[in-house]
Amino acid sequence: MAMNVGSASKSGEPEVMVEINTTPLIDVMLVLLIMLIITIPIQTHAVKLNMPIANQPQSATPPPVVAIDIDFDGTILWDGQVVNGRADLENRLRGVAAMADQAEVHLRPNKLVKYSTVAMVMASAQRLGVNKIGLVGNEQFIN
Predict the structure, then answer these.
(1) CATH 3.30.420.270 fits domain 65-138
(2) What span, in angstroms and rounded, lies between the C-alpha atoms of 102 and 99?
(3) Of 40, 130, 143, 122, nearest in space to 94 by CA
(4) In sequence order, what are the residues at sequence separation of 6 or more whose Cβ sits closer than 8 angstroms to the Cβ of residue 3?
(5) What is the spatial distance between Cα 137 and Cα 68, in angstroms, rounded to a whole number?
(6) Residue from 123, 122, 124, 126 nearest 136 by CA
(7) Each residue's pLDDT tens digit, 28-53
């Protein structure tokens, strides 16, 4: 007496496997997990910065502001007063450079002035040691 165990088909064909073979999927998942663990320390490295340290406490009063206007014909105005030549301009710039807390120099050239006049003022300020100088009124040069 023979007994048939299982649900084999009667024609003798092998049964179709319905389950998924998960072994390759687990292998791929483990490789990806190991790669993630290896690359995480590289991503968390910080950039070392040498930040400046303030030696003096900041004063509550802002530094004085000196306005230098250059008119279209090359006339130089120091806080609204006409400067008499380059020597007078350099004497005033020396005074600004000699201050312990230098004044801010705001240079406002006219749109029509020659560049050589503006460059002369900027070069004199740099040569004499004025550190805080900036151009003001650049909106006029957009068009």
Answers:
(1) yes
(2) 5
(3) 130
(4) none
(5) 12
(6) 122
(7) 999 999 988 888 766 666 677 777 77
